[in-house]
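Dear support,

I submitted the protein below through the web form. The confirmation email said the job was done, but the results page showed an empty box. After a refresh the structure appeared. I'm attaching both so you can tell me whether what I see now is the final result or a partial one.
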Amino acid sequence: MWSLRLVVAVLLSALLVSALVVGMAPRVWGILNSHEETAISLYKVGGFTGLAERSVVYDAKGRQIGVFQAENSQQTLISEIPGHVVDALLAIEDRNFRLHRGVDLRAVGRQVLANVNDGASGGASTITQQVVKNELLATLPRDGRYKLLQMRYAILLERELSKDQILERWFNTNFYGYNAYGIKAAAEVYFGKDVKDLTIEEGAFLVGLVRAPSAYDPINNRSLSLSRFVTALTRVRDEGYLTLTDDQIVRRAAENMPTGVRDRKSTRLNSSHSSVSRMP
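What the results page shows now:
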């Protein structure tokens, strides 16, 4: 009898939370959109600035003779990132990215229900919200005001930049561990290759790494890193970009795990995306 009461109580709680989410969603959306339709430039708000890059020194014959960098930060254009790597990002982080306007209210509702029902933690941040977090809100305390600001700025950013520009910003600003900022640097460090040559598996690994680069370090925390890689590949499979069984995913992840870190200092960088000095 007590088990039946427990089931009824859980169901009633879930229904109550669902009703609250459905009832509050329009008001929350109205608050987030209560500003003028003309987007406020986030570049003027502060913090949303140009991306840092390494400085490369060449001699008069075009040979690289030095690299100066506090951080291994290398910019890349969205057109240089393989489409299957972008697909992996969307599958892992934000499946509705092409549909929403900065905030995915359905994902927020699902996360609220998950938090209430089983105590799960975590957010439902879209890719746009993650860009805002990295560039505008990194130093703010994670309280209720923080989440509202993140959502509001995400909506503003979607009005100012295209979807591809936001994706490009995401790939270029995230930290991947081992002093690598941006997917171009990460491709070099973990796989010893240019970003344009990444496979979908390698792209999924790097996207999955962003959540916690130290915890998912493939060199020092290999078991946890492999588990995260399997989760990332499973999401890519579930979105239809791979056709693998669960056992095949585990094997594919193990085969594609980085075994070391690299620094391709001998590779000449594209001068159009680097700060370049030439020696006489």
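Response: this is the final, complete result; the empty box was a page-load delay. Residues 179 and 259 are 17 Å apart (CA to CA).
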